[in-house]
Amino acid sequence: MSMLTPPGMGGKYRITGDKYPRMHRPRRRGRLVFGIVAAVVALGLVGWGSLQLIHLFTGDSHKVSAAGQQHDCKAGASPSTAPAKALPAPAKIKVNVYNATPRGGLAKSTADELKKRGFTIGKVGNAPAAFDKKIPGTALLLGSARTPGTSFSVLGTQVKGATQKTDTRKTGDVDLIIGTGFKALDTKQDAAKALATLAHPQQTSAGKC
Predict the structure, then answer these.
(1) Counting Cβ atoms within 10 Å, is residue 130 exposed (0-12), middle (13-18) or buried (19+)?
(2) pLDDT tens across 166-202, in order?
């Protein structure tokens, strides 16, 4: 009988040899499964919380930015009037009217209409040979390089599509050379609207919506 065999236990319960059965605690598989499930749930909660934090710090700021941009776009949609530009009165602009077309009497009728609109009229007649029948557009505005650009612009409101050019004259008068594409001066209403736009340029926001 082995020394490990308790007294009174013999036969088939007798332990012999130098090996003996080791007693193990029964494996608690339920706790293991529960631990795995709990770990998965915890990881899921951590991931969901992280996602919410990311959305909080990025999504809301994006909404605020978008709202701000929308506000700016709405603000930019309403044009703001810039300070009025100082323009010379038509009476301060001396205009020479020349006819570079084959139609007779066009220079005089145009000069008469400009005079009614307040412009000071100078010479009236046929265009010089250098320009006669050589102006394909509606008109050419010709003046000195010293002539203020505003004088060209104010006279240009009366003839849509007129081009500008300078020469070596020393005076401040401006030539209106009627081209072959000319039909008539712009209507008083259109000319007045163009002059108002020239005097009060409007600015809108540069951003895109």
Answers:
(1) exposed
(2) 999 999 999 999 999 999 999 999 999 999 999 988 7
